[in-house]
Amino acid sequence: MRILIVEDERSLATELIQFLENEHFKCDWGANKMEASELLAINPYDFVLLDIGLPDGNGLSLIEEARKNASEAYFIVITAKGELEDKLKGFELGADDYLAKPFSLLELNSRLQAIIRRKFGHKSSEIKFGNFTLDTVKRLLLYQNEFIDLTKKEYDILHYLVLNKNRVLDRLQLTEHIWGDFYEDDFDSNYIDVHIKNIRKKMAKFDETKWIKTLRGIGYKFIAGDTST
Amino acid sequence: MILLPKTKLKNQLALINAFSKAIIFIVAIFVISWAVRVISINETDDQLIQKLDQVYELIETNGIDVFIDNETNNQGFGSYNILKEEYISIETSIDTLLYEYIADQKREIDSDIYDYRVISATISVDEQVYLIEIGKSIYTIISFEQKLKSFAFYLLIFLLLISIFIDLSITQILLRPFGKIIDKLKNTQHPKQFDYSIIQTRTSDFMYLQESIALLMHQIEEAFESEREFIGNVSHELLTPISIIRIKLDNFSENTQLSDDDLRKLYEAKTTLSRLTKMVRSLLLLSRIENKEYLKNENIVLSLLLSEILTEFQDRADLKQQQITFKNTSKKDSFKGNSELLRILLSNLISNAIKYTPEKGSVSLSLENEKGNIVLNISDDGPGIDQKERPYIFDRFKKFGKQKESFGLGLALVKQIADYHSIKIDVSSSQKIGTHFHLVFSIKAD
To answer: Has residue B158 been placed in a domain?
Structure first.
C-alpha cells in the first residue's frame, strides 16, 4: 500500500511516516500543494492523507485534481479547523473519510483498515480468534455458530481492540473511538471499564481464555497469538 | 418631558407643525379682533369728538335756548335716530365741575338697553352748567368682532386640516429615502448581507447618513472578517501543536519496551492533552456561533434527532441501570436550524442528565406542542443544582462542587446554541427532585 502524506508540519509528517511505515505502508511526503500535486501526477497512490490547511491554499482542490487525472487514491481529509463546511465539501469532492486534528494514530490506522476492507477486498470481512468470529460486515460476534449478543458500543470496542491486537489501547483512545468528537466537558473513562467487564462476561460463557488484558490505570490490550483473517 | 407613544418621524413632524400653526392662528384671532376693536373705538371716539365740537358751535351761534327752554322748567333735550344707533342729549347739570370724557355705557331707550360709546361733556353757559351726551351704538363693533372670531375659527380648522394634509404628504415624500434606509438596516441581519447600493435622495443629510452607514458597515464587515480569520488561525495554530504532541505520544506508547509506570505517565499526559483539545474546540465552537458562522437552514425533526441521541447514550444509561423515558406527544416537531449544533446541545443536556443521575435513577424527556411551539423537557433524578449556583450555570468556566474534571464550557455551549436558534431555555432544580431543563423551540410563522 502506497500512501501520500500531504502535511506542512514537518514533525507531524515525520511521526505519521514512522507509524505508517511500521504498519507496512510505503510513504511519500508532500509539504505543500505544489509538491503534493507533482507527486500525485507521477505516482499511483492507494491513499492520500490530506491536511487541507496548506501554506499555498486549501488542499481540497487536490482531490479534484486527482480525480481529473483518473487517480484511484482514497482520500482521508485532515483538518485542524474541524469545520463542518470543510467536512461536507470534502465529502462532496470525493473524500473517503475525515479526521479532525488532533487524532489518534490508532484511529487513523483503523480508518485505513476499514477502507482497505471495504474497498480493496484484500481481506475477508471475518476476523477469527480462537473459536470466536467477528463479522465486520454484519457487525456480529459469533462463537462457532452461536450468536453472542453485544451492544453496539461493546461491538465497537471489541472490534477496535481486535484490530489493534497485542497493542495497548488506553481508555482515552477507546473513548474517542466510540464517542468521536463529542463536545463534552469531562472525560469519563469509567464507561469503558464497565463495557469491558460486560464484554468479558459475555465471552467467558463460551471460553476460558483471557483475551483482554487489563493495564491498571491505563487501558486494555487484546492478546491474540493466533488471530486470522 | 411628557411621555408620548412612539410614532413615526413624519407623523411627529406633521403633529408638531399642526400644533404650532394652531397656536399661531389662535394668537392671530385674538390679536386681530383686539386690534379691530381698538381701531373701531378710536374711530368712533374721533367721530364723537367731532360731533361734540359741532354741538358746541351750534350752542355758540344759536344759544343754548334752542335746546333748552329755561322757561319751561329746565327740560332737557334728547334726540336719537330711528335705528337708535346714535343719540344726543343736553340737560342742565347740578354739577359745577367742567369735564369731558368718553366711556362705554348702557342706556335705556324705549325700555331696551343698548351699549353705547358715550362722550360726556359739561359746558357752562350763562352761569348754568349743562351736560351734553353724544352716544354711538357699539353693537355693530361687537357683532363685527364676534363674526370675525367665528369666521377665523372655522378658517383655522380648515387651514389646519389642509396644512396637516400637506405636511403629511410633503414629509412623506421628503422622508421616503429615510424610510428606505431604515428598511435596509432592518433587513440586514448580518453585515455581510448589507446592500451597499445608494438610495437616491435630494436631501444631503440622508446622503451623509447613507455614506456614514456604508462606511460603518464596511468597518464592521472588515472587523468581522479579521475576527473570523483570527479564530480560524488560532484554531489551526493551537490544534497543530496539540496534534504533534498527540501523535508523538501515540508513537511513543507503541514502544513495547516501556514499563507500566511509563505507560501510565504517558496516559496521563494524553488525557491532559485531551482536556486541552476539548477546551480549545469548545472555545472555537463558541466563538464561531457568536460570529454566526453556522447556517440555520436545515429542517430538523426533533423527535428523530432525540431518538438518535438517546440510542447513542442508551449504553451509558444501561451501565448505571438507569431508566430513560421519552414521551413524544407533539404533532409538529420540525425545527429549522443547524443539525450539528442542535445535536451538541441535546447531547450535552442528555449526557449531563445521565451523569448526575444516580444508579437506578431515571431520566425523563417529553416533547410536546404548546401554543404553536415545540416544548422539550429533560428531567433527571440527580442531586440538583445549588440555589446559589443556578444563576451562573450557563456562564463559561463556572465549575460546581461535584464536577471536578469538567472545565465548565458544556452548559455555556448549550446556552449559546440555544440563543443562536432563539430557543428559550430555563432550568429549575431542587435537591429533592433533581434538575429540570425546559426548552421552547419557537416555530416562526414565516
So the answer is: no
Which domain, by its residues, includes B417? 298-441
**Mean pLDDT highest for which of A19-28, A177-186, A219-228, B251-260?**
A19-28
Reported as a pLDDT band with limits 50, 70 and 90, residue A82 is low
- Phi then psi for residue B145, to 5 deg, are -60, -45
Q: Does B287 touch chain A (CB under 8 A)?
A: no
CB of A201 less than 8 A from some CB of B: no
Distance CA A57, CA A52 (A): 8
B255 and B286 in one domain? yes
Residues A154, A158, A159, A164, CA torsion sign: positive
Q: Determine the distance in angstroms separating the CA of A100 from the nearest CA of chain B, rounded to an integer.
A: 9
Q: Domain holding B223: CATH number? A: 1.10.287.130
Q: What is the pLDDT of residues A202-212, one digit of tens each?
A: 999 988 888 99
Average pLDDT over residues A39-50: 90
Tell the residue number behind the cell numbers 344726543, with chain if given. B88
The answer to whether the CB atoms of B243 and A80 lie below 8 A apart is yes
Q: Do B262 and B389 have their domain in common? A: no
The answer to whether the beta carbons of residues B130 and B90 sit under 8 Å apart is: yes
What is the average pLDDT score of chain A? 84
Looking at the partner chain, which of A16, A172, A217 has a beta carbon nearest the beta carbon of B270? A172
The minimal CB distance from B253 to the residues A53, A168, A171 is found for A168
The parts of chain B modelled with pLDDT lower than 50 are 445-446
Q: Quick one: B285 and B320 in the same domain?
A: no
> Could you read off the pLDDT of B63-76 as tens digits, one per residue?
877 777 666 555 67
B328 and B385 share a domain? yes
Q: Establish whether the linkage from the previous residue to A102 is cis, with ω within 30° of 0.
A: yes
- Counting the structural domains of chain B, the total is 3
Helix (H) or strand (E) holding A172: helix A171-179
Indicate if B308 and B336 belong to the same structural domain. yes
pLDDT higher than threshold 70 for residue A228: no
Closest-CA distance of chain A to residue B342, Å? 12
**Chain A to chain B, count of Cβ pairs less than 8 Å apart?**
131
